Amino acid sequence: MAKRKRKSAANHNRWHRPVLRGLVSPKRSVPPHIKLPPYALTGQPPPSTAPPERTPEEIAAMRHTGALAAEVLLEVSEKVAPGVTTDALDCFVHETIIGRNAYPSPLNYRGFPKSVCTSVNEVICHGIPDSRPLEDGDIINIDVTAYRDGVHGDTSAMFLVGEVEADSQMLVRETLVSLQKAIEVVRPGCQVFEIGRAIQQHAKKHKLGVVREFIGHGVGAEFHGALQIPHYYDARNSRMLSEHTTFTIEPMLTLGSPFLQMWDDDWTAVTLNGQRSAQFEHTLLVTSEGVEILTQTASGECAHDSTAEAVGASVFGPVSQRAVA
Ligand code: MF3
Ligand code: CO
Ligand code: CO
């Protein structure tokens, strides 16, 4: 009998051991001097009423809170290593945010039990930090949101744990590039579908899936404002973005099909086929010139840059200086 031909090792269906859930530690406390967002005690945010555009005062506050979130993401990225539990990352983010007189926005948002989302490998988003140690070869998204001076700053990035195989590196790289391409289309008068179109076109080129169930959102005094930013193309999303609008872009791309399944914790979204998923996120402001990234440090750094270098993507230039075409 002829020997069955072995599939090449470089296919996109490499099998990885599934992520197993660990134990979730008790709820961390917040000292009384921290100003709480409206949902912190009840778990329920009031219905969204904020317009998409921000006042000059809100914009100033969002620059500060955005920089704070970016700094925390940079700091926690240095803790990522094999053997470190996602609960330890949560502890670090919680303490660091509180140390800067801010509130960790995820904590008790619609009942979310922790202060940051940690999404490993096939977890698409909203992973709950627990006792699982990171393993050599894992990829992880850390999604930091902080609330200070009455506004939220929301940003996330992927990080590599030890030696990561080539397909996962490609996934991480092209997800970051898709976010960069989406940011580049933002300007006053830009239609919402242009954002999803830029992401979907880039994903298609690299045969990656685009998750449809989770989308970018308005952000400001509200964690999730009413403005919806899908990461796929749909001509019906024809709303125009005006100057002073703030929102997130946070594409989730997958190796293979983007269909998902929820764990029975009602938060953790995983790919149905067990293949890996990646996500990057920024909070953005529409300016007269085009767009400003709010989730970067005062000197224009963010955690995206070091991952870009690790996976061989070029670091994003200062789009905020870009003139409207
Ligand atoms: N930061 C996430 C986002 O990008 C939202 C997390 S909601 C939580 O929109 F409850 F899971 F924290
Ligand atoms: Co977000
Ligand atoms: Co986020």
Gist of the model:
The protein is 24% helix and 20% strand.
Structure description:
Helix 3 (166-184) packs across helix 5 (304-311). The chain has helices at 56-77, 86-99, 166-184, 192-205, 304-311, and strands spanning 103-104, 117-120, 123-125, 139-148, 151-160, 208-210, 216-218, 225-229, 246-249, 252-255, 260-262, 269-271, 277-279, 282-286, 291-293. The longest helix has 22 residues, at 56-77. The termini are far apart. The chain has a single domain, classed as Creatine Amidinohydrolase, CATH 3.90.230. The protein contains five helices and 15 strands. The relative contact order is 0.17. The protein has 325 residues and is of the alpha+beta class. Strands 1, 2, 4 and 5 form a four-stranded antiparallel sheet that branches. A three-stranded antiparallel sheet has the order 3-12-11, with no helix packed on it. A three-stranded antiparallel sheet has the order 6-10-13, with helices on one face. Bound molecules: 2-amino-4-trifluoromethylsulfanyl-butyric acid and cobalt (II) ion (2 copies). One cobalt (II) ion (CO) binds at residues 154, 217, 248, 250, 281.
The low-confidence parts are 7-11, 321-325
How many separate domains make up the residues? 1
* Class from helix and strand fractions: alpha+beta
For the record, give the distance between the C-alpha atoms at the N and C termini, rounded to a whole number: 64 Å
3D shape? globular
Name of the CATH superfamily: Creatinase/methionine aminopeptidase superfamily
Task: Characterize the main sheet.
Answer: 4 strands, antiparallel
Please tell me the CATH architecture by its name.
Alpha-Beta Complex
DSSP helix count? 5
